[in-house]
Amino acid sequence: MLNMGGPSTVAETHDFLKNLFSDGDLIPLPFQKQLAPWIARRRTPQIEQQYEDIGGGSPILHYTQVQGEGMAKLLDELHPETAPHKAYVAFRYARPLTEETARQLKADGVTRAIAFTQYPQYSCSTTGSSLNELFKRGKAGELGQLEWSVIDRWGTHPGFIEAVAQNIEAALSKFPESTRSETVLLFSAHSLPMSVVNRGDPYVLEVSASVAAVMQRLGHSNPYRLVWQSQVGPSAWMGMQTGDALKGLARQGKKQVVLVPIAFTSDHIETLYELDLEYAKEAREHGVEVHRAESLNDSPVFIRALADIAAQHLRDLAAGKGPVSVQLGLRCPGCTNATCGQQKAWFARGGR
Ligand code: FES
């Protein structure tokens, strides 16, 4: 289960930031090797405080483990031919890091694995970065004789959409019935630098597709917008920014908003701090009543969706489909990172 991860304890914050700012697939920086440790050091005290404020660490590992265990159990029933199944977590920037998980897979004698992204929508800076990292470890012989296949995106899977829609409905029910339909649904996804968007990254399109599917499931009961959060640094990022959107809606006299995290499946700092403690608080000060749709966390509907996605992948493989999706094979038209091409070819051969 591939994801960016988050520091489980406050003390792990610095290492997490250093890993994050060192990843040129995520945040391309000039002089990255020198600049990344410097930025990480500078930002650590502030981000440590944020992790303190949300309870002393990120819950993403806890929820990913809960999701993984639930999924593996269901998968044993849904696809007994390949049982027993076991979920491993491989984070890109926090423990357990890919290299740690690779060691564990080897120690456990695992011979067959699915690289299952936990980012519903594909971006080269998130899922692509995790796959590049796995590829590098595989090339270095750290993964043993594992045979790989990849689940690279599932942003419109009906089970995922249903789980999000149910959490929106729960948030909407907090508003009085008489004015509920006037509530604005503000979908918020992690932003991307425009340099990534402009090289042809599919993320913006795929997040939009998720939003469209959720709105269809909701019968277009409410007006909505998709906005973008968590930009860092001075360069141009995908907008409109979530915080500005809330202020704009307040200016226009909107009184009720449901904030919907659409590209995160578990709570982490971007939901618990940025959405709940920053944006929602600020909007309330501007007279807007804001409720956030819960993250999927331990939602049984979502865990069932993960198992369904994995089971379908295994059925497709048994039916002779290749180890990767057709879509994964296509590089961004503006891609200049040679690793992307090698990685795609490697996974298409089953990691050999
Ligand atoms: Fe998208 Fe390389 S950046 S394939």
From TrEMBL:
<protein>
    <submittedName>
        <fullName>Ferrochelatase</fullName>
    </submittedName>
</protein>
